[in-house]
Amino acid sequence: MKIMLIGRTGAGKTTLKQRILNREVKYHKTQMIDYDENIIDTPGEYIENKGYYRALNVVSMDADVIIFIQSSTDEDTLFPPNFSNMFLGKKIVGVITKGDLQGNLNRARNFLQNAGVENIIEITPEKKSIEELREILH
Questions:
Q1: Number of domains in the chain
Q2: Which residue of 44, 74, 75, 133 has the fewest CB atoms within a 10 Å radius of its CB?
Q3: Which domain holds residue 54?
Q4: CA–CA separation, 76 vs 47, rounded Å?
């Protein structure tokens, strides 16, 4: 199963990828689309610039699951209403990151729901939440 990660710069896409793959977490800025095992990590600029939406759509053809990543510390979202409709036929999962940093989990959940995501999980530093995500993905 191939997974595609979408979210703004700094939302935690690369960290989530590393945790899913059981790797040491090392921060680095994703500069271009990164294919790593079964995960497609997209740069934040692809959601931050509407001109790249077409690229997201094309790349999504290689994915079975699209994960929208929303940080709980962000006061706004870049996911337009019903953004999930752009990825017809794909399983869409929402992931809320940085819940341990005194973010607003309800706000982040509302942002993802407005984007058309029904299945949402909060990722915390505990390994349990990553295991829950793995179960949802399979």
A1: 1
A2: 75
A3: 3-137
A4: 13
